[in-house]
């Protein structure tokens, strides 16, 4: 397979460099972005290292989009896409070959962007260069792995630009944050934590994207059509959840003691935490249902992923809103770029983009497959949200630490009761939404059969 991979990479590089137009466009766009951002500085001023690193990686990200659009357009321009699909090379070789070609072209472009950033933005390379080069390589590998994957999914579709803009950039955000942080240190910014944690994030992202894509392809090749059916009573769950929710109000306002510093504003915590947890559970269900769809090709798994994603985005949005209300009373600001808050907002944008992707006008089977792969890859941000307060310095409170997180026993009982209450409501919402999607697909199938008759 390695021989076929290198053959694919050599072919793409030869065609791209021979034409030159695609690479030139990417270079011009990146240089234009660097020049435009340099105009924000006064005469004799230099941009802050963090800002300069951000501009460099934004230019690289837009350049990457143009590069992979060009790489996957090569077969379409030459009307050879069918030949590529019929060749005996495994799909992994095609993806890896495109990724390697994109990596080489992106590194070539960055050889131009880096001195341009130093000149236009008034920077100098006074920080740890070995760590910066390692971060550059790890970030580029992750960007090209994800760009090659989404380019393959969008090939031949009119919605290619929508897929790349809506899904790619939110997924790249953790990787770009790692590149920006280490790059800023290379440009002289001080960071007491050092580059180690961010290098670990970039390496974990690369392993997660590449590994999950390989698993998704392997499952996709296995195929299958059988998936066991489950039954439940969502109405009973909703009824029990409503009764439990009413009981929790007594626990929140009468049983749990009032916090000394925040007063009644602390009671938001009993709503905020359960919604946050069940939003993460929703995205775990999206991941599992997406894997199940790729394995068995059963539309019911796709509908479960859609239902869980909708509920997860709803709960995640409400968790962000209640968190801002709590932050205003506790920290004095509505929002701060804390690691826990930032990664949660990124996760919300990723799954909001996933829902937008589900609404695109694509053939149903194609849309289901694309969404399943994105649902697998998007889960990469969920453990990052959970571990963010432990990996980086965070002012977000730890609820259950080694000594109970500072909660009184009555508070612990109340919060666990609220988590269980929201679990019943969550299960009812997911199941009812899935039932609606089941009925919708049945009606669509009946209408199609009537038209065919």
Brief account:
By secondary structure, this protein is an all-alpha fold.
Helices, strands, pairings?
Blueprint: H1 2-19, H2 21-38, H3 49-77, H4 81-86, H5 91-120, H6 129-154, H7 160-186, H8 196-222, H9 234-255, H10 269-296, H11 299-330, H12 339-358, H13 364-378, H14 381-391, H15 409-452
Helix pairs in contact: 1-5, 2-3, 2-5, 3-5, 3-6, 3-7, 5-6, 6-7, 6-8, 7-8, 7-12, 8-10, 9-15, 10-11, 10-13, 10-15, 11-12, 11-15, 12-13, 12-14
Overall shape: flat
**SSE order in H/E notation?**
HHHHHHHHHHHHHHH
Largest sheet: none
**CA-atom Rg in angstroms:** 24 Å
Kindly report the average pLDDT value.
78
Give the low-pLDDT segments.
219-232
Helix/strand class: mainly alpha
How many structural units, i.e. domains?
2
SS element count, helices: 15
Distance between the termini: 47 Å
Helix content: over 70%
> What portion of residues belong to β-strands?
under 5%
Tally the beta strands: 0
Please characterize this protein's 3D structure:
78% of the residues lie in helices and 0% in strands. The protein contains 15 helices and no strands. Mean pLDDT is 78; it is low at 219-232. It is flat, with a radius of gyration of 24 Å. α1 crosses α5 (91-120), α2 (21-38) runs parallel beside α5 (91-120) and α5 (91-120) crosses α6 (129-154). It has helices at 2-19, 21-38, 49-77, 81-86, 91-120, 129-154, 160-186, 196-222, 234-255, 269-296, 299-330, 339-358, 364-378, 381-391, 409-452. With 453 residues, the chain is an all-alpha fold. The protein has 2 domains: 2-222, no CATH class; 234-400 and 407-440, Four Helix Bundle (Hemerythrin (Met), subunit A) (Up-down Bundle), CATH 1.20.120.
